[in-house]
Amino acid sequence: MIYDPLVLTVAALFGAIVGSFLNVVILRLPEPGASIVFPASHCPRCRHPLSWYENIPLLSYLFLRGRCSHCEARISFQYPLVELLMAMISSAVFFRFGLSLTAVGLFLFSAALLVIIIIDFYHQIIPDVISLPGILLGFAFSFINSITSWQDSLIGLLAGGGILYAIALLYYVLRKQDGMGGGDIKLLAMIGAFLGWQSLPFVIFASSISGSIIGILTIAIQKKDSATRIPFGPFLSVSALLYMFFLNDIQTIYRLYLAGNLF
Predict the structure, then answer these.
(1) pLDDT confidence of 81, banded at 50, 70, 90?
(2) What is the pTM of this model?
(3) Cβ(142)–Cβ(150) under 8 Å?
(4) Interior/surface letters 15-45, b for 16+ CB within 10 angstroms, e for the rest
């Protein structure tokens, strides 16, 4: 672990900068044919190009008081929120895993999960352009990843995709309708590749419980029927982040449970 305030501050600043880029990815990736590089950052409403001082993470939103300087359109609170979350995640990753290749890989993994959370929440899709390369990168990363081995990563990606595929197939056989998208299956395979098969019981259990609670509350509040679609990707992603940061504690609970010493 790193306790140096300067290192953690630099990590947070870097995370905020990456978060600013992630906002561009989140905005443009769901649009067919859109580039995340061109054109340069601009107001989504009036298309006015942003000046450098309008592109400073977090500070520009405060300086502009949440409005475009050209057309006065309100800027979505999503922008500073993603920048702040990525700053916090970045600082937490380097605090937890130190200045290491493991920290760098898990930082990229966390950034991908944050993009997936926001896109799936708004559009109910998990882009293959993130999950499919993520599966391969997660397995390649396992050869230098200090928290899992390549064998555990390989089992994780195969089991992660296979478990959700089996659940989705069983649901379709019983209900004659799709209950889980293919994006969720690929996402869990990516999680298994980065965190190993040991992460899967916690990720599946925690995401299922939290997803069920939020789903029930959503149906009750909005007074909709049980066919209401709740994106599952955010719950899988948040559960993966929790496992990543607290894996030692979670694995200790595993061992105590299996030994019959938990209670």
Answers:
(1) very high
(2) 0.90
(3) yes
(4) bbbbbbbbbbbbbebeeeeeeeeeeebebee
